[in-house]
Design goal:
The complex is a heterotrimer of chains A (93), B (484) and C (514). Chain A is an alpha+beta fold. Helix content of chain A is 35%, strand content 10%. Chain A starts with a helix and ends with a strand. Classes of the chains: A alpha+beta (93), B alpha+beta (484), C alpha/beta (514).
């Protein structure tokens, strides 16, 4: 079943900072939920096709015609940090 | 490199020249100020949804057809999940195990030899935004204080082309890429402008004992943004791998970053483990079911591709394979050449002048074919003037140079600078007689048997006539005069 | 101006009063704004009340549109705060969007705005629509107006409570695993989830893309149909939206003659508490009294629907919520040392515990090596659940079940055990997996708290459902209104209810009996 190492790995993948006590608690909670989910493995569903889309529609596409974009002020309106009309993020290195 | 052979595969990304982005209606443009072509979709605002650009599907299919791929009857999009500031949704809408097209090939030429590289897949995805790293010296991530994101480019339709590891050398890789780029440009689906990053690639390289059929462990090479760098990077990596293997070591499956300043590759300091992309089918988009009749329609309306045009040039204009490759290999030059011929110049002389003076002019001036300072019509006229003897070949080169300088018609240049070829026998006889008389010693040498002295006399006659004497006639008259 | 009871007024009736000039839009808006002022401190249904805008706009409707034009003009509505509204903050009840000002409007909301509804405000929800009690909101816990010590259900708890408490004439909510129907049941109002694709999701902050749908919460089935009419329709901005094969009809009729209704044995075995079961059985009997025929059907894969949902929904959510990363909008942690720190702390601080749990499950289920065992398998179970319904609908026209296993539970009673909370949705989740339409209508009280009755139909059978629900609603004659008692505070004010002689139900019996 899921252990604390798994939880730490998954938290990293999901970019979620968990406090140490959160890791322990989360591990217990997730283990219980996954145990319940494992009920599915009772079923032999291998021959059943998966449903990725519940609607039977295909080929939805649009014309290649430009429409109005946001003004730059609107694009940046909610930005937590702006620099030279760009979205600014902390150092990546 | 004795006993070893390299195996190269290429993964290429091409930005399409559609009007709008892959999944939203923002315009695809270049060079605008930051963040003026964005919307809730390509900024990944909460609640925004993607809608497929039909023309991007068409263009992608044209690429797939030109690469002889099987266009799948059904394809779907997948989410490729990872975090990066240039990826606003923190997933890229891409294709995974049900791509647009698979199993094609591309024939290309290396040193007159035709090679075939199989194509694994062609699929559709969206481009990331532009990241600018600030505060450091180099503009790279390392050493930067912060980074900035411009989302204008984010969402541009991107076609991924993956080759099989069929490319046998660094030079072949360079030719493959160059010719594939030409192909895509010919299709009219992308300008593949390299400065703008409209075509990008990574290379996979492994080595194996010569003649072996198994593949060795490969490394992935990144950050080669010119064809020359691609070749350089591969040439640097091959001996490195061989060195390791010959010393009994094993190659690590790793990513290497090419440094154009040193010409070498170094492993990327990856701060994290390999990406776990957690692909799953994109629930916000529905499958694309491709109508075979539509594919056939595209096939019949494909533009003439380089391979076909080269063959046609050989056939239609009687050119050699090598000349046809040079003239027919790229659209712009081919178009120019055919205009010259259409304006009345003979096919072979037109070829010589286009491949010679015209190409030299383009290279010197840094211009694209069709955008030189000599039009096809004017070049055709010049070719005809030389062909009918009005101008000698060597004068013709001078005329060409002056046509560029003065942006003038060839006949005007000829007249203005008095460059008409002198073919009047009596006029030339007089000059010949003068020259022979003035160089009695050399005349004696000639009569004594030193035949190469003729060249000296030809030169003197040319000097005296300002290069305009008809060389053939000069030769004839000189011989007559000297041999008496 | 007539005295209006906001706890009972329907949109149909309000429209009649507006059209006949008995009330103005401004007066009507004031009725609701006054009710909000009176009870909101106890109910906490709204994250944001746009009182000034509502007052001004309703005045404008009176002045310019004469309140007669358009079926929705002047009618006050509440919108769940996970639908973006340009110029009005949209928070999804999350800290990570506490300052988010949308630059566009959700299509469904835009459609009703264009019909000149008067928006009263944005209602509370479980954070990012993840929950069944609205206790996962990062801002406030909404209380059920029937007993303030209990929950209104979730995730559209704010919208349901607002309608039940007379704080709005009607509301929009969203339903991914039951988030409209379950709170509707717990709050004694009507709630409907349309067929997947019937209403555009553009502007609905995505939780699970293949399951989410926007739908109405109203005081009557007729109102539900009226509101639904105005939000359905293909939207070029949503590739998964479709045009309905027939337009929504406003329901009429009192009988259910010839209607075949299936009762799935598996749903009744699912831990339904006795009071809920009793009301359900009574309602089934009513269907037969109205000429319908109820038979047992089997949906054999029901018990696997919840596990499948709790893979599919979190998996899609884990990707849908990845965009909340502090780069382009929303919360960003203070003084990040580098990009990774910013990502991890922004999301760690910005998301509540339930959201984090679901992101974790979803990420895990999709991660390398687990896809086939979890997500892949869940998608196959989904096919089995769909087929169950298809097979059942070969023999019946609608399927009926209790909407929820229990009535409203005490706030705090399930928060320690996430699984127990998930069990609230046992009767609603399979419907989302199959993409089908379903409605919940109040069918009675148990221990003074409302019980919901669910009708499920095949894809695009909205009109069939609405017609049946309307007739059944008339027969049930559910009359009580919430009393705002608080069992925790010991304030007893039980509604108590039983069918009144001479009411619609009795009349129908007299005329229809044979």
């Amino acid at each position: 079943m899921i252990g604390e190492d798994d939880v730490r790995y998954v938290a990293k993948l999901a970019r979620l900072r968990l406090a140490p006590d959160e890791v322990a608690r989360m591990t217990g909670e997730l283990a219980k939920i996954l145990a319940h989910i494992d009920k599915m493995s009772e079923l032999d569903a291998a021959a059943v096709p998966p449903t990725a889309h519940v609607l039977d529609i295909v080929n939805v596409a649009r014309e290649d015609r430009p429409q109005h974009s946001l003004s730059r002020p609107d694009a940046l309106r909610n930005a937590p940090a702006v620099s030279d009309d760009c979205f600014r993020v902390p150092r990546m290195g | 490199m004795s006993g070893w052979e390299p195996v190269v595969g290429l993964e290429m990304h091409v930005e399409l020249d559609t009007q709008t982005k892959m999944f939203c209606t923002c315009a695809v443009t270049k060079g605008d100020e930051p963040n003026v072509h964005t919307c809730p979709v390509c900024l990944a605002h909460p609640g925004a949804l993607p809608v497929v650009n039909r023309r991007a599907v068409e263009y992608a299919t044209r690429i797939a057809l030109a690469l002889n791929c099987t266009v799948q009857p059904r394809n779907i999009f997948h989410r490729k999940n990872y975090f990066y500031p240039d990826l606003p949704k923190a997933y890229q809408i891409s294709q995974y195990d049900e791509p647009l097209a698979v199993s094609g090939w591309f024939d290309y030429w290396v040193d007159g030899e035709k090679l075939r590289c199989r194509i694994n897949r062609v699929h559709m995805e969206e481009d990331a935004a532009k990241l600018i790293h600030a505060g450091g010296d180099t503009g790279r991530i390392a050493g930067s204080d912060y980074s900035m994101v411009d989302f204008n480019r984010g969402g541009t339709p991107l076609i991924e082309i993956v080759s099989e590891p069929d490319i046998p050398s660094p030079e072949a890789a360079r030719e493959f890429l160059q010719q594939l780029r030409n192909l895509v440009v010919e299709l009219g689906v992308s300008e593949c402008n390299m400065e703008e990053g409209q075509i990008r690639w990574d290379a996979n390289l492994s080595v194996r004992p010569e003649g072996s059929a198994e593949l060795g462990t490969r490394t992935e090479l990144k950050n080669m943004n010119s064809f020359r760098y691609l070749q350089q990077a591969l040439e640097a990596e091959i001996p490195r791998q061989i060195g390791i293997l010959e010393a009994g070591g094993t190659i690590d499956l790793e990513t290497l970053h090419f440094n154009p300043d040193t010409g070498t590759t170094t492993p990327l300091r990856s701060k994290e483990e390999a990406h776990d992309y957690r692909y799953f089918p994109e629930p916000d988009l529905v499958p694309l079911v491709i109508d075979p009749a539509w594919v056939e329609d595209l096939r019949t309306t494909q533009p003439e591709l380089p391979e076909a045009r080269v063959a046609r040039f050989v056939e239609q204009y009687g050119l050699s394979r090598a000349d046809a490759l040079l003239l027919g290999g790229s659209h712009a030059l081919a178009e120019f050449y055919e205009e010259v011929v259409a304006a009345g110049a003979g096919a072979k002389p037109a070829a010589n002048w286009t491949m010679g003076e015209y190409l030299a002019h383009l290279n010197a001036a840094g211009l694209e074919a069709g955008h030189g300072h000599v039009t096809a019509e004017r070049l055709a006229k010049l070719v005809k003037l030389v062909a009918d003897g009005t101008v000698s070949t060597s004068s013709g080169k001078e005329v060409f140079a002056k046509m560029i300088e003065e942006r003038a018609e060839p006949e005007d240049v000829v007249e203005k600078h008095g460059l008409c070829q002198i073919s009047d026998t009596s006029e030339l006889e007089a000059t010949v007689a003068q020259v022979v008389a003035a160089n009695a010693a050399q005349a004696e040498q000639y009569r004594a048997g030193k035949r190469q002295v003729l060249g000296f006399f030809v030169g003197q006659v040319m000097k005296s006539t300002g290069g305009r004497a008809n060389p053939g006639l000069v030769n004839e008259l000189l011989r007559k005069a000297l041999e008496g | 101006m007539p005295t209006l009871d906001p706890l009972r007024l329907t949109a149909r009736e309000a429209k009649r009063l507006l059209v006949e000039g008995e009330i103005s839009a401004a007066e009507l808006a004031k009725v609701y704004l006054d009710q909000i002022a009176a009870v909101e401190a106890a109910v906490h249904a709204f994250i944001l009340v746009t009182a000034d805008n509502a007052a001004k706009y309703s005045t404008k409707v009176d002045r310019e549109m004469q309140a007669t034009r358009g079926p929705l003009a002047g009618l006050p509505i509440a919108i769940k705060d996970n639908m973006v509204t340009e110029g009005v903050t949209t928070t999804c009840a999350s800290k990570i969007l506490s300052n988010y000002m949308p630059v566009y409007t959700a299509t469904a909301v835009r459609r009703v705005w264009e019909d000149h509804v008067v928006m009263l405000g944005k209602t509370n929800l479980d954070e990012f629509a993840m929950g069944s009690s609205t206790e996962n909101s990062s801002y406030q816990t909404t209380r059920n107006p029937w007993d303030l010590a209990t929950v209104p259900g979730g995730s559209s708890g704010g919208s349901a409570a607002a309608v039940a408490a007379g704080e709005a004439l009607w509301a929009l909510g969203s339903d991914t695993g039951g988030s409209i129907r379950q709170p509707a049941a717990l709050c004694g109002v009507v709630g409907m989830k349309p067929t997947y694709g019937a209403v555009s999701r553009y502007g609905l902050v995505a939780f699970a893309s293949s399951l989410d749908q926007i739908g109405p919460l109203t005081r009557s089935v007729y109102d539900c149909a009226l509101l639904l009419q105005h939000i359905v329709g293909q939207d070029p901005k949503d590739s998964t939206s479709v045009a309905l094969p027939e337009s929504i009809a406003l329901p009429q009729g009192e009988r259910l003659d010839g209607l075949r209704v299936g009762i799935p044995g598996e749903y009744l075995a699912a831990g339904i508490e006795p009071g809920v079961r009793a009301r359900f059985d009574e309602t089934v009997a009513r269907i037969e009294e109205l000429g319908g025929r109820c038979t047992e059907v089997s949906l054999p894969h029901t018990e696997y629907a919840l596990p499948a949902y709790y893979i599919i929904a979190p998996a899609e959510a884990s990707a849908n919520l990845a965009r909340f990363d502090g780069v382009r909008y929303g919360y960003r942690c203070a003084d990040p040392v580098d990009l990774l720190d910013m990502y991890e702390r922004t999301r760690g601080e910005g998301f509540g515990p339930e959201v984090k749990r679901r992101i974790m499950i979803g990420t895990y289920a999709l991660s390398a090596g687990y896809y086939d065992a979890y997500y892949g398998r869940a998608q196959r179970v989904r096919t089995l659940v769909r087929r169950d319904f298809e097979q059942a609908f070969a023999d019946v026209d609608l399927i009926a079940s209790p909407t929820t296993p229990t009535v409203a539970f005490k706030a705090g009673s399930r928060t320690a055990d996430p699984l127990s909370m998930y069990m609230c949705d046992i009767c609603t989740i399979p419907v989302n997996l199959a993409g089908l339409p379903a409605i919940s209508i109040p069918c009675g009280l148990s221990d003074g708290l409302p019980v919901g009755f669910q009708l499920i139909g095949p894809a695009f059978s909205e009109n069939r459902i609405l017609r049946a629900a309307h007739a059944l609603e008339g027969a049930i004659g559910f009359a009580p209104a919430p009393t705002f008692r608080d069992s925790a505070a010991g304030v007893a004010n039980d509604a108590g209810w039983s069918p009144q002689p001479g009411g619609l139900c009795a009349q129908a019996l007299r005329e229809g009996a044979s």
